[in-house]
Write a structure and sequence with these properties.
Shape: globular
CATH class: Alpha Beta
Order of helices and strands: HEHEHEEEHE
Structural class: alpha/beta
Strand order of the largest sheet: 2-1-3-6
Number of helices: 4
Strand content: 15-25%
Protein name: ribose-5-phosphate isomerase
Number of domains: 1
Enzyme class: isomerase
Pathway: Carbohydrate degradation; pentose phosphate pathway; D-ribose 5-phosphate from D-ribulose 5-phosphate (non-oxidative stage): step 1/1
CATH architecture: 3-Layer(aba) Sandwich
Catalytic activity: aldehydo-D-ribose 5-phosphate = D-ribulose 5-phosphate
GO biological process, one term: pentose-phosphate shunt, non-oxidative branch
Length: 123
């Protein structure tokens, strides 16, 4: 019988896979806000610390994400200095029955939208 994963375990898997599949050395990366994005930020920090990722800079979408990234020694910049992002990673606040992702349930919507619009790819 298959093991049932918790919500947090699933979010961690998604956050880590997003970083593993889409974030490469030398990129400008948007870091989202919320429970799934938390794990993506965690993964970026791990890969930088291990040396698997190099020369990236990140733009956080909230104070909470900024504080987490700083605690992991992730280099941060702003949209003022880097208005073109290679990729942005964020979670969905809701998914409708047709599998459309809905943003806006959290408190960082404006900043999340600004980063998303500036990114070549949004995950």
């Amino acid at each position: 019988m298959a093991e049932k994963l918790s919500q947090d375990e699933l979010k961690k898997m998604v956050g880590y896979k997003s970083v593993d599949d889409y974030v490469k050395s030398g990129m400008v990366v948007g870091l989202g806000t919320g429970s799934t994005a938390y794990f993506a930020v965690e993964r970026v920090g791990e890969l930088l610390k291990s040396g698997e990722l190099k020369d990236i800079v990140c733009i956080p979408t909230s104070v909470r994400t900024k504080e987490q990234a700083e605690s992991l020694d992730i280099p941060l910049v702003t949209l003022d200095t880097h208005s073109k992002l290679d990729v942005a990673i964020d979670g969905a606040d809701e998914v409708d029955p047709d599998l459309n992702l809905v943003k806006g349930g959290g408190g960082a919507l404006l900043r999340e939208k600004m980063v998303e619009v500036c990114a070549d790819k949004f995950i």
